[in-house]
Amino acid sequence: MEGLLLAAGAGRRMGMPKALVSDDRGSWLVRGVTTLADGGCRRVTVVLGAEAERAAALLEELAEPPRIVVAEDWADGMGASLRAGMRAFADSTDGFVLVSLVDLPDLVPEVVARVGTATRSPHVLARAAYDGIPGHPVLFGRDHWPGVLETAHGDQGARAYLAGREVELIECGDLASGRDVDSLT
């Protein structure tokens, strides 16, 4: 399974790009990459946009830096970031991509690993749920990659694609909150 971390946005409500946010546990960007790798992703790809050079510099400290993709149209929303990231997997020999967001600071490797244990087939769609509420990360089997690319627009990401499809929900509320953080206050 490959990991995809979306970290391109300007973080307007945050007051800065979320890829540059740090808290008492360190950089959210570095933590997101580490969480995906420690959770079982054999390769991690990060999509950057706003302040891409500054964000990329944060990743240089990692022993195994991720592959970096810059979404030139990042200002168009999460859909642009998701498309840029998914296009990067055209060369992948893996059949699964697990997509996560940089603004999930309490995400832990155990959530990634648990979602990664979903039924392995090219048509798998699985996602973490927190007390029954669907969240991230989301696991896409290869059969879904073209559809995600086609429908990812605006700030919706893959929401339109996932709507009305059978998605395996994997309860992870015992491990994390699943709450995305939009402000530091």
Q: In words, what does this structure look like?
A:
The structure is a single chain. By secondary structure, this protein is α/β, with parallel strands linked by helices. It has a single domain, classed as Spore Coat Polysaccharide Biosynthesis Protein SpsA, Chain A (Alpha-Beta Complex). It has six helices and nine strands; from the N terminus they run E-E-E-H-E-H-E-H-E-H-E-E-H-H-E. It has helices at residues 28-38, 52-59, 78-87, 109-116, 145-151, 159-162; strands at 2-7, 22-23, 26-27, 43-48, 67-70, 96-101, 125-130, 133-141, 168-171. The strands form two sheets. It has a seven-stranded mixed sheet with strand order 5-4-1-6-8-7-9, sandwiched between helices. A hairpin with a 2-residue loop joins strand 2 and strand 3. Helix 1 (28-38) crosses helix 4 (109-116) and helix 3 runs antiparallel to helix 5 (145-151). The longest helix has 11 residues, at 28-38. The relative contact order is 0.19. The mean pLDDT is 92.
Please tag this protein with its features.
alpha/beta; seven-stranded mixed sheet; 26% helix; Spore Coat Polysaccharide Biosynthesis Protein SpsA, Chain A; two-stranded antiparallel sheet; 185 residues; 6 helices
